[in-house]
Amino acid sequence: MRAWRRVVLCVALAAPPSFAVANDAHASVSIAVTFDGLLRSSSACVVGTAAEQQAVWEAGRIYTYSRLHVDSAIAGELHGDDEVWVRTMGGIAGGVGQVVEGEAGLTVGRPTLVFLFRAPDGAYLVTARAQGQFGLYTDEQKQLRVRKSGAVGTLVPRAAEESGPMAGDVMHGRSVADAARDIATAWGRTHAH
Predict the structure, then answer these.
(1) Where is pLDDT greater, at 7 or 171?
(2) Which of the chain's termini has less CB crowding within 10 Å, N or C?
(3) CA angle 106–69–113, rounded 5-degree value
(4) Residue 170 in this model has a pLDDT that exceeds 60
């Protein structure tokens, strides 16, 4: 009996720690994106509303595809009333959920200001993940304003050659009309050929 207990104890102690305790990971580190960097990396900026979502397994991960209706085109290749599929990491598929910290999160029926770029497969992705998505809210004066995402995780500074104000700092608290005007003006500068 003692030999059996010693074998069980040895096996238990030899098990990798990840099997002994299961914990969720709650961390994300992203490189902070400047306002100009966000513009340069994007192919469109719009105010849009997700109309539907589908989560699927791809290469061992869950991705959510949101059909985004363009309520208002601000700059780039998309136009008002366009509808495009936006792919984000995470979601619920087949009874399994995955959360990806630092990822953008579109919600059906909720408008958002979002910077997008087109992936080689034709789907759109949110530029700089959650840093490229801005929530909208109405202030006390009934003016629609922009709010930076609280889901960006920890941001590390850009390399010295990439200077300028951070995108979230430029956009946060601005009226949508003022933000759209400044984005459209800066778009021409950052996308000049």
Answers:
(1) 171
(2) C
(3) 55
(4) yes
What is the three-class DSSP state of 57?
A: strand
The answer to whether position 19 is within a domain reads: no
Average pLDDT over residues 176-181: 96
Cα–Cα nearest to 52, from 5, 91, 21, 25: 91
The pLDDT score that the predictor gives to residue 165 is 85
CB 111 within 8 A of CB 137: no
Q: Would you say 135 and 112 are in contact if contact means Cβ atoms under 8 Å apart?
A: yes
Q: Give the chain's domain count.
A: 1
Range of the domain at 179: 25-190
pTM: 0.80
Distance CA 121, CA 126 (A): 14
Q: Judge residue 68's burial from the number of C-beta atoms within 10 Å of its C-beta, 0-12 exposed, 13-18 middle, 19 or more buried.
A: buried
Burial label for 76, CB within 10 Å (0-12, 13-18, 19+), is buried
DSSP string spanning 154-178?
A: EEEPPPTTS-S-BHHHHHTT-BHHH
Residue 144 falls inside a structural domain = yes
In a domain, 154, yes or no: yes
For 40-84, the pLDDT digits (tens) are 999 999 999 999 999 999 999 999 999 999 999 999 999 999 999
114 falls within a domain: yes
